[in-house]
TrEMBL record:
Organism ancestry: Bacteria, Bacillati, Cyanobacteriota, Cyanophyceae, Leptolyngbyales
Residue ranges, annotated region (Disordered): 1-20
Native source organism of the sequence: Phormidesmis priestleyi
UniProt keyword annotation of Coiled coil present: yes
InterPro entries according to UniProt: Nuclease_put_TT1808 (IPR012296), Restrct_endonuc-II-like (IPR011335), Uma2 (IPR008538)
Protein name: Putative restriction endonuclease domain-containing protein
């Protein structure tokens, strides 16, 4: 009797969705992560935009991962994800990533991230140091991710957003020229617009009342 060896069952790979570390090490880093992620998510209808989400580019290799501060996967649908597993996303790698430096980041760590992004298909990489308002950019060329010589007024080829480093803080602008806003600024603008609408409505009501006193039907005007 010939015995046959049974095929070993495949071991399921566990892909962690957290490393137990905080999203940001200080309030300024967190503020910029939120501003960039939220504004890009509002702007890009056809892209998945996430902040501090683990990206696994290779199936079966949970040890190969990184969690960019902000990443943009153009052509991938929005929605909930525990992590970005590239083989489940039609093989689409995030094309644009942002990193916001914190004092705890080391040169070795950031060099390793640049190498990871270059190796796994990122097209544009932006690195912002909030403490000294220094912005660096890398664009994929014939020889991988190459430093962008001058970021002043730079426009992202994929996102069409403009970077302004002329003041003491980075400013980002949408394709229509409007600036990126924080959540608080969006709420303030909405409240101001509502107040203006209420004032206009009140003025219209007073005018209509005055016309009626003069014997004029405002509905007939």
């Amino acid at each position: 009797m010939v015995s046959q060896l049974s095929k070993p069952e495949a071991t399921e790979v566990f892909y962690p969705d957290s490393d137990g570390q905080p999203m940001a090490s200080n309030t300024e880093q967190y503020r910029w992560i939120v501003i960039i992620q939220q504004n890009l998510d509002w702007l890009l209808a056809d892209a998945f935009v996430a902040g501090d989400l683990f990206w696994y580019p290779v199936e079966g290799r949970a040890d190969i991962s990184v969690a960019p501060d902000v990443m943009v996967a153009i052509g991938r649908p929005k929605g909930k994800r525990l992590s970005y597993r590239q083989w489940q996303e039609s093989g689409v790698a995030p094309q644009v990533v942002f990193e916001i430096l914190s004092p705890s980041n080391t040169r070795r760590e950031m060099d390793a991230k640049l190498l990871f992004f270059e190796r796994h298909g990122v097209e544009e990489y932006y690195l912002y140091d909030t403490e000294i308002c220094e912005l660096s950019g890398f664009l994929r060329g014939d020889f991988g991710l190459t430093p962008i010589p001058d970021m002043a007024g730079w426009v992202s080829p994929l996102l069409a957003i403009r970077f302004d480093v002329s003041s003491d803080e980075l400013r980002l602008f949408r394709p229509d020229g409007s600036p990126f806003l924080s959540y608080q600024e969006v709420i303030a603008q909405a409240e101001l617009a509502e107040q203006r609408a209420d004032s206009a409505e009140q003025r219209a009501a007073k005018l209509a009342e005055k016309l009626r006193e003069l014997g004029v039907d405002p509905e007939q005007i």
